[in-house]
Amino acid sequence: MMMFMQLAQGMIVTVEIFLLTLLFSLPLGLLVAFGRMSKIKPLQWLVKIYMAIMRGTPLMLQLIVVYFAPYYVFGVSISGGYRFVAVIIAFSINYAAYFAEIFRAGIESIPIGQYDAAKVLGYTRVSTFMHIIFPQVIKRIIPPVTNETITLVKDTSLAFVIAVAEMFTIAKQISAKQASVTALMVAGLFYFVFNYVVAYIMERIEKKLSYYR
Question: By three-state DSSP, how is residue 76 classified?
Fold first, then answer.
């Protein structure tokens, strides 16, 4: 019973990391996508560099940098409460880079004629994007976004790098203490069920948006 209570606490942390990462990385990814498509060259190149770093270096390294940078760069003391915040920051800026490319691909897949038609009908650029383009983009990017969210579920276990006790970390500690793989098996089952639920929800959203059927 004690084992399941400890794992339950870890599960809560894992779900929190997952939900907060999506909450911040999706809108940030959209902003990055706009920067990537911007006609302002300095901004475009700055965004390209950011995306290259985020996608070209391990998330584990990014977690370490985000956690220790305030101390080594600015001399700010690090509190224990900053560990969880650092996890959310690192995960959010990492996944925003991937979501940005997904958003960009979705936006650029919309025929340019739709923009011209909306302009003729009197739509502003903002209303054209929000009411005509964005709904189509959401429909088209659901499959790749689903893949990234499933990867995110598994990546939450990397929080152990800066000693954030999410579920997999607690499962490893219990297994080492009890010399048993039971806790790890339970953790594996949780990840499987969590991923199944995420995939099911995204599939339902995709079918809901499948207005061509």
Answer: coil
* CB 194, CB 45: distance < 8 Å: no
pLDDT digits (tens, 9 = 90+) for 181-209: 888 888 888 889 988 999 999 888 888 87
Q: Which domain holds residue 125?
A: 12-160
Question: In total, how many domains does the chain have?
Answer: 1
Coil, strand or helix: which one is 90?
Answer: helix
Q: Quick one: tokens of 89?
A: 């920051």
**Which are the contacts of 95, defined by CB distance < 8 A and separation ≥ 6?**
21, 22, 25, 29, 148, 152
Task: State pTM to two decimals.
Answer: 0.88
Q: Does 174 reside within a domain?
A: no
Q: What is the CATH number of the domain that holds 116?
A: 1.10.3720.10
